[in-house]
Amino acid sequence: QQSGLIYVDEMIVPETGIDDINEKKVEEYLTNIGQKEIDVPKEVLLKNINILKNGCLTLGGLLFFGKNPQQFRPAFCIKAVSFYGMDISDSEYRDSVDIVGTVPEMFNDAIGFFKRNLHYIQNNRNFNSTGELEIPQVVLEEILQNALTHRDYSKNSPIRILIFEDRVEIISPGSLPNSLTVENIRMGNSVVRNNLIVSYSSKLMYYRGIGSGILRALKYAPTLELIDDKQGELFKVILHRPKVGSSSPHEYSG
């Protein structure tokens, strides 16, 4: 995998089959790539777009087009917890959920988790308006999408979202691949770990795949922390929450 000879997301998932595919999601994908009217047998079509291989779903196919991806890969989910305090050892929390489904579904549900557990700032808006998230939504979207797209799927563990009183942590399984460093990605460099997932993301999500996600997040949160933990085999992003009483998202320091 490190050498780029093996892509985990292109490997088959044993015990899966064509009946585990959500056809509506496939139709949406075909519409997006302008191929809905192709007249070929269904199994041939599914092979051509890398959802099916040797009668089984590929991992990428399962994660984007499966009826129930976690039935076969239960660890490939997002575990999200919102704590009252500032430490993961705290026994009390305000919200906790296992977010499951396809990659786009997990993305949308995780954004929903952020929206109900972070504060809103009025920023001179009308009193009756919802306001803006204390951490700009574009930052949360870019970091979360990177986590889902670039995590190491050879690691049988979930993505974690931890909300504390003073910060948000988004933790992805797997450290940065190959020779990629935190300094590299701060400059817009990227290495594709999951070719198939990146391809599907570019058609079904707002993912651009040109290494601009971190740059966009840094634009709105310039002091966010990026931690590449080689020993722990994980990648962590820390977003500091503004102090209580901050009146404008422009005061947000990342």
Task: Kindly describe this structure.
- By secondary structure, the chain is of the alpha+beta class.
- Helix content is 31%, strand content 18%.
- The chain is built from nine helices and ten strands.
- The chain has helices spanning 23-32, 42-48, 59-65, 69-72, 103-117, 137-150, 182-186, 195-204, 213-220, and strands at residues 52-53, 56-57, 78-83, 93-99, 120-121, 132-133, 159-163, 167-173, 225-229, 234-240.
- The strands form three sheets. Strands 4-3-7-8-10-9 form a six-stranded mixed β-sheet, covered by helices on one side. The chain has a two-stranded antiparallel ribbon with strand order 1-2. It has a two-stranded antiparallel ribbon with strand order 5-6.
- Strand 1 and strand 2 form a beta hairpin.
- The longest helix has 15 residues, at 103-117.
- It is globular, with a radius of gyration of 19 Å.
- Mean pLDDT is 89; it is low at 246-254.
Annotation keywords:
9 helices, six-stranded mixed beta sheet, alpha+beta, 254 residues, two-stranded antiparallel sheet
**Secondary-structure-derived class:** alpha+beta
Mean pLDDT rating = 89
Beta strands, count: 10
Distance separating the two termini: 33 Å
Strand order of the largest sheet: 4-3-7-8-10-9
What's the main sheet like? 6 strands, mixed
Task: Note the total helix count.
Answer: 9
Please trace the helix and strand order, writing H or E for each element. Answer: HHEEHHEEHEEHEEHHHEE
Instruction: Estimate what percentage of residues fall within beta strands.
Output: 15-25%
Morphology? globular
Taking Cα atoms only, what radius of gyration do you get, to the nearest Å?
19 Å
Helix content: 25-40%
Enumerate the spans where pLDDT stays under 50 for 5 or more consecutive residues: 246-254
